[in-house]
Design brief:
By secondary structure, this protein is α/β, with parallel strands linked by helices. It is built from nine helices and 15 strands. Strands 3, 4, 5, 6, 7, 14 and 15 form a seven-stranded mixed beta sheet that branches. A six-stranded parallel beta sheet has the order 10-9-8-11-12-13, with helices on both faces. A two-stranded antiparallel ribbon has the order 1-2.
Length: about 325
Amino acid sequence: MTSNREIHLASRPQGWPTDDTFRLVETEVPTPGPGQIVVRNQYMSVDPYMRGRMNDVKSYVAPYALDAPLDGAAIGEVVASEAEGTAVGSTVLHGLGWREYALLDATAARPVDPSVAPVSAYLSVLGMTGLTAYAGLLEVAAMKPGETVFVSAAAGAVGSLVGQIAKLKGAGRVVGSAGSPAKVERLLALGFDAAFDYHDGVRESLRAAAPDGVDVYFDNVGGDHLEAAISAMNLHGRAAICGMISQYNATEPSPAPRNLALVIGKRLTLRGFLVNDHNDVRAAFVRDVAGWLREGTLSYDETIVDGIENAPEAFIGVLRGDNLGKMLVKV
């Protein structure tokens, strides 16, 4: 193969991204130099955090460049190698998605064993998604057995794992919010004690689902969900702030929760986090999750879109909440 297709950022969106935000570009398959490899991507991840990188603003990660390929987690097969120790035919995880063929230093790729699990799992339950759920719940929010846990966007990639891990680690009650009756039913099938459609009203629904209050809140949404959680949280409650998808496409500043004063009297902890700050728990994460998968006590969902040309629509679909579990593109 000599042809390589990539998705470039064509313009910086104002509000919601559109088809004009992206451009499909055809290039040549790259040739590796010393210490480099070429990977034929099999799957790539599209994630809500990528929306922030489309803005030219200072953040914890550099913005995407215009007229250049986007990037993100991907997994694929090494098809050319000039790196000692990285063989052609091996499967690697890396950070150059949004393209069919990726050229990178071998040191920037992590070999994985495709016989252990489907390769897509390394982008979901066994990858950054799973570690985010595990570390956010157990390290950042420091959930204790017997506590009540509330998870927003609970049918998504991270949220669905948070709820299950909470139950496996002894939570007394786990409540999730989702965006449709079908997703609510899926949460109940995954072992959530209660779930509700946020279109029915977050504060009222949460009060009914967790009448004794909430000890831990795992926040993927922000906005009205964070406000409702603050009202429902018990004394010394903790919130792990993972994402705020309700605000990513806002064109006006979003109002803060109107009840922040409750943080004082309740002595609440609201703590943001990035998954890369918690690589110290990766070994425990792999041990626990691999064991749960073998036992069949942990499930994961994937929504797979076929074709690199459809990656923009898959990404926009994540922002709309079209996915059940992890949204992936089969390149």
